[in-house]
Amino acid sequence: MPVVANILQPLNDVEEWVLETLHSAGLTWGLAIVGLTLLTRMLTLPLVVRQFRSQREMKLHMPELKRMQERYKDDKQKLQQEMTAYYREHGINPLASVGPLLIQIPIFISLYMLLRQDATSGLFGDGGFLFIPDLTEKPQGAVLAVMLLIYVCSQFASSAIATRTLQSTHRKIAMGLPLLFATVIMRFPAGLAIYSITTSLWSLGQQITFWRLSPAVPSGTAALAAEAEDVAEAGEDSRFEAAIEHEIEAEAAAAA
């Protein structure tokens, strides 16, 4: 078993227990997967909110920090001293938004690995969910087309909101990521695809909510701060998906 799987095994055990409890309570395996995914997202929501608030706070200070960078652009040591003093004066922790993200990533990777294992091992039997005939088989034909459509559209919408102030090049890269990660739905059993789609829809709702709570997009120097915040928002899901893709490739290499 890979090292990552060993490290995340305690999380896997808890998530497995919740999944089987939901199923024992009368939910189908499909609904149990949706329920476990939403429960995990809700439990980590305080971390996401904290990350969002930290990013928004940094956004308000970025114009002054930008002016400071211009003022001391030829003296890196002085710039570092001034920025440290500014952070201390205003009680700013520039890494405050990183901690919550680092806590979330292992949780979602372990959930992904658990559902992939359960779907592949046949735990879900031959049961279906909505228009999906079998959770243990790779989606095909019209089922695959519908699942890809839902996933890609929700991811596009989420990326469009998160990158609304990015420059054109960065925005195109971020908007292209959903097509890259859509391969997860094509390569694995439908039970795992339900998790991916549920996560995508949750992320869309989350982005819409944060967008409504965000202050109006500024112009000029402050727009650079808004862009920095959007890079962080857009990067959250892509970092998670990239970690998953890395785990997939590592296991494939080990099996070869």
- Individual helix count: 10
Distance between the termini: 14 Å
Query: Quick one: overall form?
Result: elongated
Gyration radius from CA atoms, angstroms: 21 Å
Q: Give the helix level as a range of percent.
A: over 70%
* Largest pleated sheet: none
Please state roughly what percent of the residues sit in beta strands, choosing from under 5%, 5-15%, 15-25%, 25-35%, 35-45% or over 45%.
under 5%
Task: Give the low-pLDDT segments.
Answer: 216-236, 238-256
Total number of beta strands = 0
Tally of domains = 1
Overall pLDDT: 69
Q: Give the helices and strands as they follow along the chain.
A: HHHHHHHHHH
Q: Briefly note the structural class of the backbone.
A: mainly alpha
How would you describe this structure to a colleague?
There is one protein chain. This protein is an all-alpha fold and 256 residues long. It has one domain (3-255). 79% of the residues lie in helices and 0% in strands. The chain is built from 10 helices and no strands. The protein has helices at residues 3-24, 29-43, 45-71, 76-90, 98-121, 141-162, 168-181, 183-187, 190-213, 221-255. Helix 1 (3-24) crosses helix 5 (98-121), helix 3 (45-71) packs across helix 10 and helix 5 runs parallel beside helix 10 (221-255).
Question: How would you summarize this macromolecular structure in one to three sentences?
Answer:
With 256 residues, the chain is an all-alpha fold.
